[in-house]
Specification:
Length: 465
């Protein structure tokens, strides 16, 4: 893949670091996944230089993949951002052993903590997984869980004072980490920086900065992260920091701004993926196409059932199970969330049971090998099938975007949506999930297309919707 044209790097606030306008989002990438590794390498080879991850992404496997890839690149040219705060998976096991203070027990399998004792373990583990001596930017990851928990329990009044006390204590710890050389700069990633000021769960950039200044005038609080897209525009439009929006306030205070979820928009309690799933003019497949997609698998399963007289998974086999589950799903993301628990786990249990009965039969072993070759492409085809059903929403988003003043364009919807965001004043870097090389190619072509008036378009979108 050829390197993209040299582009002026953007300043990342007052950190002294500079970054490509599009960053590599490390959510849902895993060590051992070859396409994910290829995509990250393609991003770096084409001139990208900012990687964003978190301790809880893939239960640490995102950081582990990044660490493996970074060994082959010049470290000083790459900006590494990671985050801490979530207690899930391996961190849950750690928390059950260590009993950290000030844990927010949000739900089964999901706790949260920004206490220095917990953060110390997180910084150390992140450095180990990424095989680094120092992280460029360390962010508290969604500390608003405390406010949401307080609101859920009807205890809003004192919640904000307690939260910012906790943030201040976390900042003091991160200042010490910066002094020790394990991090360079720190900040906060919050989904609620763009919420109205009177929202009981809103977080405030100005309050965070105030806490940093309480510690020292030479603080290292220099970066924030928040979601923004064509539908979630609060960070650019909601004046919630002394009459300024989060972006305006950050510009005034020279804070770097990272944007996440640029193509995954939540609107009216549903997820809208801002991307194209079918070629222009192509008709999306209807539900009746699903049996045809599953037919080769059904035939494969019926053959082994006849040859070995074995019971198929839940009677109808994997094909039957998927024919039951897939029509209930509304999108590709729903499939990715449901596949593990409702398809992969039952399949693995059935395979283990049958292996115990037929391990010595070469017909069974050959059949399993053939099944393994079928499953991953089939799962991907199911994802494409569901994604294509989302094209109606994508076409609607494109029409609205054009109505808001985006010039007529034959670019992909994803490129158009990213183009809006990278041209909003105050945005340092837009983080995009790029788990495939084709996503890297799509995203890194954005700076080469005609610039647009991003903030003006968001204002028009707000008026239209």
């Amino acid at each position: 893949m050829s390197r993209s044209p040299d582009l002026p790097r953007r300043k990342l606030g007052a950190t002294g670091l500079t970054c490509h306008p599009l960053g590599f989002g490390g959510y849902r990438i895993y060590r051992g996944n070859h396409p994910h590794e290829e995509a990250l390498r393609a991003y770096l080879d084409r001139g990208g230089n900012l990687i964003d991850t978190s301790a809880n992404y893939g239960d640490g496997m995102s950081e582990a993949l990044i660490g493996e890839v970074l060994r082959d690149y010049s470290r000083e040219k790459i900006v590494v951002v990671t985050k801490g705060g979530y207690i899930q998976g391996e961190n849950m096991k750690l928390a059950l052993r260590e009993d950290f203070p000030e844990i927010v027990r949000w739900g089964e399998g999901l706790w949260h903590c920004i206490h220095p004792e917990f953060l110390r373990s997180q910084v150390r583990r992140s450095l180990e997984r990424m095989q680094l001596n120092k992280v460029d930017i360390y962010l508290l990851h969604n500390p608003e869980y405390f406010l949401t928990d307080q609101a859920h329990n009807g205890n809003v009044a004192a919640g904000h004072e307690v939260l910012y006390r906790r943030i201040g204590e976390a900042f003091r710890f991160l200042e010490n980490q910066a002094d020790e050389g394990t991090i360079s700069w720190y900040g906060v990633s919050s989904n609620n920086f763009g919420n109205p000021a009177d929202d009981p769960t809103a977080t405030s950039v100005s309050r965070c900065l105030e806490e940093a200044r309480r510690i020292t005038k030479d603080h290292r609080f220099r970066v924030i992260q928040l979601p923004m897209n064509l539908y979630e525009r609060g960070g650019a439009l909601e004046a919630n920091n002394f009459g300024k929006t989060a972006l305006e306030y950050c510009q005034a205070e020279n804070l770097g701004v990272l944007i996440n979820r640029p193509l995954n928009a939540f609107s009216r309690n549903r997820l809208i993926r801002l991307a194209d799933f079918t070629a222009p003019g192509q008709t999306p497949p209807d539900r009746g196409a699903l049996p045809g997609i599953l037919e080769p698998l059904r035939v494969h399963e019926q053959r082994i059932a006849r040859e070995l007289q074995l019971p198929l998974l839940r009677g109808g086999g994997l094909a039957g199970l998927m024919l039951e589950i897939v029509p209930q799903l509304q999108s590709q993301s729903h499939w990715e969330q449901a596949a593990g628990k409702y398809v992969v786990e039952p399949l693995q249990s059935w395979l283990q049971e049958m292996q115990g009965r037929f391990a010595a039969d070469p017909r069974w072993q050959a059949w399993v090998q053939d099944l393994a070759l079928m499953v991953n492409p089939l799962f991907e085809e199911i994802g494409h099938f569901l994604a294509a059903r989302e094209q109606v929403a994508s076409d609607s988003a494109r029409e609205i975007l054009l109505s808001a003043g985006y010039p007529a364009s034959d670019q992909s919807l994803s490129r158009m949506a990213l183009n809006v965001l990278i041209h909003i004043p105050g945005v340092s870097c837009v983080l995009n999930g790029m788990r495939r090389i084709r996503y890297v190619e799509d995203a890194l072509g954005v700076p080469e297309i005609t610039p647009v008036r991003g903030l003006e378009i968001l204002r028009h979108l707000s008026a239209l919707q």
